[in-house]
Amino acid sequence: MSMARTANPSSSKRAGDVAGALGELLALGDKAGWVVTCYQKLEPGDRAGEKYRIKLKNRLRAAADRLDVLGYSHAEKAAIQDALQKIEDFFRSPSNLMGARGLALFAAPRLFRVVHLPYVLRSRVIVDRTAVVGELVALTEEGTRILAVVADRRSARFFDVGLFGATELDGVAAPESSRGGRFHAAQRAGPRQGGGHAGPGYGEYRFQNRIREEKERHLARVAESAQARLRAGFDFLVVGGIGVEADALVAHLHPSVRDRLVGALQLAPKKVTPAEIQVRATELLADHAQRRAEAAAEEFRARLPERWAVDGVEATLGALARGQVRTLLVDHDARVPGYRCGTSGRLSESLALCRGEGEPVPVADVLDDAIEDALRQRAHVAVVRGAPARRFDQLAAILRFQMGR
Q: What's the CATH number for 297-399?
């Protein structure tokens, strides 16, 4: 039996906004003139005391200060400064930031595009001839659409969760036979088959066994339905339930489906709203990305002695220039000024190391540019925070092919 469908007036059209924005920006190319790209994290820690605004102002100011150093014309500088100001003005209004854990902004004389993201790898401001869209490409390829399933022993609710809201889908209800109440005391004295009487609690034991079996059969049906729906275009799965039962459904999922599971939510299945599901499911998606980054740091430590990894800024930038990087690890809090060699396009923290490779162009932070280079090469980027970031020296990489001896 299917449960009635209810709908949340979420913007399912906007759910594909990352892919839509990416298509527009790629089609625009360099027609907009110099573009300021701003990726801004807006997680709870960033919002506390409006820390993000202070750091953003510093990044915008640093970008403005570099305009003279990089030799832009008067007209180009005026256009870029105007774009920087538009970005700062946008962040002054709290209403522009509601419901966002991350934003990407693209500003130029004929362009101002805002894209909501489930998370941002690292806050940064970049000025380039085209919009810097590597992070949008990575998100589009990985996906952001979540199937959320919240279940108890009698029913299950399904939600299609996007970046801007959630829509409730048809649910699944257990058969009527699974909806019995508590064991009735009068049943405890029922006769055994073959004569005589059962001992104390005999009937109750059978009753509780039946309830457990019916619950497991119900969860198996829910898991089967979830697996079928995942094939309809969902990228990730979130499960939920009451207390310790929050992840009860996981045991019934096929191993291939578990690979797409990003977490379990403790909530009341009958009371939860689509709005709450949307907020909490996208939080799990951000947490999942951070867990992947920490796992990459663990893998790096194991791979380093085998020469399948490199540590340190210059060694990693060299591997990146050779197309050797499978996973780029970046310390979230590190900042390293450097250069992009004019002819080769290679990044380096040293001016001297660009000798013979064209006129070096100063780079405010080679780690930010390294992220974009890695994304263009379809490498995974792991921005690592806190203690796990101390396992490498600001920048590191797990390699696609082994270092020579």
A: 3.30.1330.30
